[in-house]
Amino acid sequence: MAWFKRTDKGIQTPTEEKKDTPKGLWYKTPSGKIIDTDELKKNLYVSPEDGYHVRIGSKEYFELFFDDNKFEELNPKLTAKDPLKFEDTKKYPDRLKEVQKKTGLKDAVRTAVGKSMGKDLVVASMDFSFIGGSMGSVVGEKIARAIDYSIENNIPFLMISKSGGARMMEASLSLMQLAKTSVKLAQLAKAKIPYVSLCTDPTTGGTTASFAMLGDINIAEPNALIAFAGPRVVKDTTGKDLPEGFQRSEFLLEHGFLDAIYERKDLKKQVNLYLDLIQNQPVRA
């Protein structure tokens, strides 16, 4: 029997015979463009019609930067404690367990070392899916240890930021990570080892106030929100309308806060080009 039948009132489909479209087959960008999710993945999660860069995590960035997706993860088992006995709608340890189970991540940053265009590179990549990419003690410690690894092995360092800022559940301990990571980057600079900072959407709060804007080269993906306080907070505080595109990467580039903006497909080549130039090495094809 056919799945539809004609009547005098038009084509009707009995409820029991209706077919639901499987979830996750299509992605709709903010501008309304629709793309097949398989095509989106093949295009590095960038919409080909409007260039919208969908948020991705450390898994996808490691696949992008490391040759053949081969790398050694650094300090993968570090997890947060609860020295402040923090509790809001949930106890902090319960929230951590829940998000760890949901995301498969230990915390909001992963660090790894591997080959990128044939040469060693240390990469730290944040994950917004883990409590909004918030920066707590584990994030600061893993970045610090990754920088130490870069110094000990004379390997360039790439930081990929994607964060809502400091983690409120750790209060002042979270804020201490701003100074901690900044000091480590000063040690990296003293050792004359290159540091490239890649800001992705969003890069806000304490990350922007520390390691995200301290690169030898500061670059970003298109239309990424990069700020300390978000535009709504700024508008509510000043009581003034903000310029069009305020705090987006193009706005920051125009005002001298960024060195360049690159589409995702060009990131690996451009980062390695910078590293070759900084280290006065032959440019890799």
From TrEMBL:
It is found in: Cytoplasm. InterPro entries: AcCoA_carboxyl_beta, Acetyl_CoA_COase_Trfase_b_su, ClpP/crotonase-like_dom_sf, COA_CT_N. The keyword Protease does not apply. Keywords: ATP-binding, Cytoplasm, Fatty acid biosynthesis, Fatty acid metabolism, Lipid biosynthesis, Lipid metabolism, Nucleotide-binding, Transferase. Residues 1-22 have a biased composition (Basic and acidic residues). Its main location: cytoplasm. It catalyses: N(6)-carboxybiotinyl-L-lysyl-[protein] + acetyl-CoA = N(6)-biotinyl-L-lysyl-[protein] + malonyl-CoA. Its EC number is 2.1.3.15. SUPFAM superfamilies: ClpP/crotonase. Residues 24-285 form the CoA carboxyltransferase N-terminal domain. The keyword GTP-binding does not apply. GO terms for molecular function: acetyl-CoA carboxylase activity; ATP binding; carboxyl- or carbamoyltransferase activity. It comes from the Bacteria. PROSITE patterns: COA_CT_NTER. One of its GO terms (cellular component) is acetyl-CoA carboxylase complex. Component of the acetyl coenzyme A carboxylase (ACC) complex. Biotin carboxylase (BC) catalyzes the carboxylation of biotin on its carrier protein (BCCP) and then the CO(2) group is transferred by the transcarboxylase to acetyl-CoA to form malonyl-CoA. Acetyl-CoA carboxylase is a heterohexamer composed of biotin carboxyl carrier protein (AccB), biotin carboxylase (AccC) and two subunits each of ACCase subunit alpha (AccA) and ACCase subunit beta (AccD). This is Acetyl-coenzyme A carboxylase carboxyl transferase subunit beta. The gene is accD.
